[in-house]
Design goal:
Blueprint: H1 2-33, H2 37-43, E1 47-55, E2 64-75, E3 80-89, E4 92-103, E5 108-115, E6 122-129, E7 134-142, E8 149-160, E9 163-172, E10 175-186
Antiparallel strand pairs: 1-2, 1-10, 2-3, 3-4, 4-5, 5-6, 6-7, 7-8, 8-9, 9-10
Amino acid sequence: MKRICLTLALVCATQLLTHAQDAAMEKAWMEYATPGPMHKMMAMADGNWKTDITFWMAPGAPPSKQAGACTNKMILGGRYQESRHTGDMGGQPFEGIGVMGYDNAKKMFFSTWVDNMGTGVMYLEGKWDDATRSITFTGKSTDPVTGKDLNIREVVKWVDDNTQTMEMYMMQNGTEFKNMEITLTRQ
């Protein structure tokens, strides 16, 4: 009889523990899947933007400038923001797609970028800074000359509701230099 009672007690305890673990797992997944304040902040940049772009191909090189357009929209139930860029790059049509998101579990923003000027993907992660109203991303892209990873740093700043800036820095010969700056103005 004692053996039956002990067995029943163990079965009940196991079921309770399993139920508690399942509830904790379900809660964690719900928090992970639900857009929050950072996603709402990203959504404020939805819409059409004019882009003014400055490039530097190497440290000390003269800048080249071009204009373009960008359309931002939240996708997949407000979890990510897709940015589609168009313009002209050295006389060639340019198009690029970025996806930015906020990972609720990591408490971190991430950004991916692909365009018609390459076949790789750039992946960056960063944190929001309230004081500067910016995200400093760091990550990697492929250096087409060497085929190896290239360290990238990108600073995205919300100047005001209708203006954003993005500065991109890369490494060349062990030295970081600014190779791109974009000013986005809401249309």
